[in-house]
Amino acid sequence: MIGGGQLARMTHQAAIALGQTLRVLALNENESAAQVTPDVVLGSHTDLAALRRAAAGATALTFDHEHVPTEHLEALEAEGVAVYPPPAALVHAQDKLLMRQRLSALGVPVPRFSSISGLDDVDAFCATIGGPVVIKTVRGGYDGRGVVMADDAAEARSVVSRYLDDGVAVMIEERVTMRRELAALVARSPFGQGAAWPVVETVQRDGICVTVIAPAPDLSPELGAAAQELALGVASSLGVVGVLAVELFETVDGTLVVNELAMRPHNSGHWTMDGARTSQFEQHLRAVLDYPLGDTSALAPYTVMGNVLGAPTIPAMSMDERVHHLFARMPDAKVHLYGKEERPGRKIGHVNLVGGGSETVESLRERAERAAHWLSHAVWTDGWDPHE
Q: How far apart are the first and last CA of the chain?
């Protein structure tokens, strides 16, 4: 697996149960996955020689991020390496403009968009849209980075001008009036078998996912099935192998619009580790090894995931003690920590709560968000004191 972050770390956990060894290409020995896997190659994902060292003798090569140069992957593929997803598919998760163009050609609903070569393109697009727009870097953005909202043409020109002055390629698209954000997570094998998990609702703050509710509350069966079919269709049309996350907008009039694609295990699928019969990490391995895919059904009416994000001020209380107190209050909490140094806003772990009995989804969400906040800040949002 190229990349040594938390996705590689959790994929390694799944590999152990399947009798596999996950080799990781990591930048340094302190990265999340490098701490736990016995087979680590140190090097950069932009270095073809390092990629070759990582791929040597491996059954398949896959990714925990999309930032590997396409030409390097094409070179590995030409040398006989089984690259999954193939570079011809992965490029659509690397290049947002190419992704928009390809999905549009396939008839998949996307926001109105345009490439930008100069400020005149901004004026022309804003005149056509007549409303707020979004400027995105064509490559490299994630977790809200490289995405800027603009309310009018003047603001859009200012944003685009700064990017172009820095030599950064950008695109522009309409800002969708949405009810909420959804994610359809699917997997596809080289044989062409597909599998889809229940569609989830994702809650964002400052461009970063903070909560995932599985399945999405009050989502009609028809719209849920349409989202799954859309994602499976995209996976098949692009030739994806492995997990594909299709991030969606549910519009105020009840339609679906594709926002982003990710061709790897994804934050929106972390709930599957405890709330589904097959986790996204096991499924990704099944797919790239061309095993039959696993059952994706949910184990409970609802599972809620809360992301643990580094607090603005790192607590004096150790993480070990925070986990101790969380378990004392919520023995059903499933904690997944990434072995990362705490920094403000950094994803350092997540908490899953699997619903059961008569607990409402609202109560489950409140508890999951409270648990994640506690692990981040060492403060209970309701003022609970275990010693009283």
A: 48
Phi-psi region at 332: left, alpha or beta (left = phi > 0; alpha = psi -120 to 50): alpha
205-226 pLDDT, tens digit per residue, is 988 999 999 999 999 999 999 9
Nearest-angstrom CA–CA distance, 36 and 113 = 43
Q: Which of 104, 126, 112 is nearest to 173 (CA)?
A: 112
Output the DSSP codes for 160-224. Answer: HHHHHHTT--EEEEEPP-EEEEEEEEEEE-TT--EEEPPPEEEEEETTEEEEEEESPTT--HHHH
pLDDT of residue 357: 81
C-beta of residue 1 within 8 angstroms of C-beta of residue 23: yes
Cα angle, residue 319 at apex, residues 352 and 377 outer, rounded to 5°: 75
Query: Tokens 């906040």 map to which residue?
Result: 373
Smallest Cα–Cα separation from 353: which of 339, 372, 337? 372
Please write the tens of the pLDDT for every residue from 156-166.
999 999 999 88
Strands across the sheet with 133-137, in order?
Answer: 113-115, 170-174, 133-137, 147-150
Q: What DSSP string describes 340-364?
A: PPP-TT-EEEEEEEE--TT--HHHH
Average pLDDT over residues 116-143: 88
Q: HEC string of 28-71? A: CCCCCCCCCCCCEEECCCCCHHHHHHHHCCCCCECECCCCCCHH
With a CB cutoff of 8 Å and minimum separation 6, the contacts of 30 are: none
Q: What is the pLDDT of residues 87-104, one digit of tens each?
A: 999 999 999 999 999 999
| pLDDT per residue as tens digits for the range 293-344 | 999 999 999 999 999 999 999 999 999 999 999 999 999 999 999 999 999 9
Would the pTM of this model clear 0.85, i.e. be above it?
yes
The secondary structure of residue 95, as a DSSP letter, is B
139 forms bridges with which residues in the sheet? 95
Q: Any idea which residue has 């073809």 for tokens?
A: 48
Those residues with Cβ within 8 angstroms of residue 202's Cβ, 6 or more apart along the chain or in another chain: 181, 182, 183, 209, 211, 212, 247, 267, 268
Which pLDDT belongs to residue 144?
57
| Cα distance between residue 18 and residue 288, in whole Å | 13
Distance CA(171)–CA(117), nearest Å, equals 9
